[in-house]
Amino acid sequence: MNRDGFAESMEPAKFFNKLGDSKVQCFLCPHNCVISPGGIGICRVRKNINGNLCSLNYGKITSMALDPIEKKPLYRFRNGSQILSVGTFGCNFNCSYCQNWAIAHANPKTYDMEPKQLVDRALELRSGGNIGIAYTYNEPSIWYEFVYDTTVMAKEVGLSNVLVTNGFIEIEPFKKLLPYIDAINIDIKSYDKLFYTDICGGELEKVKKIVEIAAKDCHLEVTTLIIPTLNDKPDEIFEMSKWLSSISRKIPLHITRFFPGYKMMDILPTPKDILIRAQREALKHLDYVYIGNV
Question: What's the predicted TM-score (pTM) here?
């Protein structure tokens, strides 16, 4: 067992360099963690085992359900269909308001499933309207090795692959995965750099670059959770939607309602009038703006 209580995996990780003193540096996400022997990265799922980087969550499932595609949310991709949604544990962000903290930052129970087993399960559910697999619930990019192997296999048998992500991944691994992804929803936490560093532990500019790359090669939708007093300013929504429209006016934007959770219990749910105002600002630049979680 590792120090967080998970059964250890020896699955070799991708995208790292070996350093001196048996240290390794991970290049999967922009944190570029330098990890000493026996240590783990910020994501909690990539560990230095004897000078090699290994994935601790390969094939480790915490959540699985057949969901409407609109729940991802994807409103303009295969409307009315169902998709098998799966997640693991860990995250490379540390958002104070995390809606899925119980699997992203706690120690949930897991069960093992190989890529072929997951693909076979998705195929079995086709008769119920299932179109493929969505990698979601926690941050799927840190599940990279399992997601990559599964998406390749799923694509070969005609299943759709959907990624629901914070977009905090390095360009090289993202571009290697992208040919197997049919649709992606990227969560833009805020259009304020300080919000990203102070509230999420990430970088806005890195996420923006991934949005730009994704828009060229697959169906893209964007989600922003509106938190009162933190990222609800009309000019911020205006500037974000203006930037998105410079890529394409047709990128759907989902403006969703905040509810207290995790470490942020002192802020009330987002008033509906703030959501409506944000939608109005975004519609000045984008063709499709939806309000969700109300």
Answer: 0.94
